[in-house]
Records
---
Amino acid sequence: MMNRRTLVGLLIFLLLLGLWPFGQWLRQHPEVLAPLLGFGLAGLLFALLLVGYAWRVRRQAFLARESLYTDYGPFEFEQAVAEIFRRLGYKVRLTRKSADKGIDIWLWDAHGQRIGVQCKRYAKPIAAHHIREFIGALVNARVDMGVFVTTSTFTDAAYETARSSPVQLRLVDGLELGRLRDRVLGQEPHLLPWSWWQRLKPWQKVLVLAGMYLLTGLLLTLGFWLGLGVAMPLT
């Protein structure tokens, strides 16, 4: 009996075999090829737009989990912190766990300054030795600023160690992290970024998208007609 892989391969071969004469026919009829390319490319562009919107909705749901401590695993917590800083306007890069060297996230601000971030999903307060280890990681990485983020709190000794640090440190406890998350969660994802789009009703959005698709398809078709040297129909 034919296995699944062989069957899929045979179906792909038959599909390509059937498309070959169709492709030859299209080469002889560029007036048909132009709208196919135009509306096909428009469909691809709109599909990419929808995929991007779906990704933003998924990230919003990921960030909106109730508890930053109990509802995230260790690496998920780092991802959530990275998403918060990304929405605050920083360029963000998560480090690989096998080679983070004490830095979980790298940030770059609007001026290009590099900032190291360490994340601790802890229930107990962060002690001074945690801060000293982080300072050592920042010094080794040759950066002048770091952010220590935790779901818990910091001891008085940890604050004192941060104040005497040779590098600039910002300590973000669970309460401040929650406020930052609430701030960025107000930035709800939208399919299109314009304010007038956000005021439309669902059925109006459908009509606008349909009109945009038709207009984009027609413009691209016109471009392909000109590119292929096809005489444009007048009726």
---
Amino acid sequence: MKQIQTQRRITFFVLILLLALLASNLISDSFRATVLQVFSPMQSIAWNMGKTVSGVFPFPDVSQQNEMLQQENLELRFENTALQNALLENEELKNALQLQEESEFSLAAGRIVGKSIGEDRILVRMGPDVDVRQRMPVVTAQGVAVGTVGRVLGSMIEILLLSHPDSSVDAKVSGGRGIIRGEGRFQITLHLLPREIALQAGDTVATSIGGGLFPDNYLIGTVSAVEKKDTEPFQKAFLSPFFSLESSEIVFVITNFLSP
């Protein structure tokens, strides 16, 4: 039995060698044609022998290996994402504790559970027994202005981002004051800033207590472009907001600063 299997293996490998020679340019066309004619009836036999040999010398299933590698890659990505989110939340909570210690305001933490960039709203789940009302300012642990409380739905609250078309906040930049307005689609602009104020790209815009909606000095964004016309007394600026939905999981409602 072993002798038969050995002969089959030898015959199989001889056929493989001949096929390799046929595929190369080392033999003449006439010899190639002759060999093909002689061995063509044996192709099916060689194929069946190949199955037998593959049972003795198993070849790896490449597609199965690729599928396993892809699954392992997905699992590693999931674990990496979970670790990054945990680190981000820990960092936000550490910053929140520091902000709470340094701030004169009371902060109530909430987790973002829903995002709607098209409507410039986010849905936040608050903790139990938190007294949250409409128009209360919302910030991040890094001191960035997010928006204001919209509807209160029990422990869930709706936040209108500064980019929401209904949002309007007093702001200051470069020694001047203006009004931040939401343009939708995560876009915000600065209006009513006197044209004589020197304004340029990269300037930082922060909240101003003048409007009574936000406390002073919470970060809004940086100037990305300035629009100034000789016929108008005010200039307009386009801003790149500091708040990012992709990098924020927790926000904070300032509960003891309520606008009139």
---
Amino acid sequence: MMSNDFIYVYVNVSRVTTTATPTVLIGQDELTARIAALAQEIRSDLPSGQLHFICVLKGAFLFLGDLIRATEGPVSIDFMACSSYGAATSSSGEVRLTKDLDASIEGRDVIIVEDIVDTGLTLHYLQEILQARGPRTLRTACLLSKPSRRKIDVKVDYIGFTIEDKFVVGYGLDYAEQYRNVPYIGIL
């Protein structure tokens, strides 16, 4: 082989099984307590009527489940899916909607439920398209916030935890579809 020859190797990371155990960043008890406090804060701000939670799939599904169980009063849910990561460990910066809502949000009290706000690009995109659909109120709850990674100023009404710029998994968050079932937030 000559020095100008290259060998390209393509690895489909979605098929790579990882066995590394994440280091605990936020434990189960801390998650439970903080989510209960967020639920009380949300209901305090919106004390009457039905709250409509929109879960951003896939990462926020466990957070949504625990958040609505801890929320007093009537709630309803819907789901959206966006992609800005793929199988990478950092946001691509390009957001695309892969699943839209099943029902109208016009005139409703809506809370976007997001797993992690990193660059802010995905959340900004969602807030813009949902606000255009005429909800009575539109708020955002995120489990994790990484303000040091923000590329755009985005409003987050309810923040579970502010964390440093580490790649985290567990409690619904994944790396190449692995680790979603880890019962805590961990660092790889």
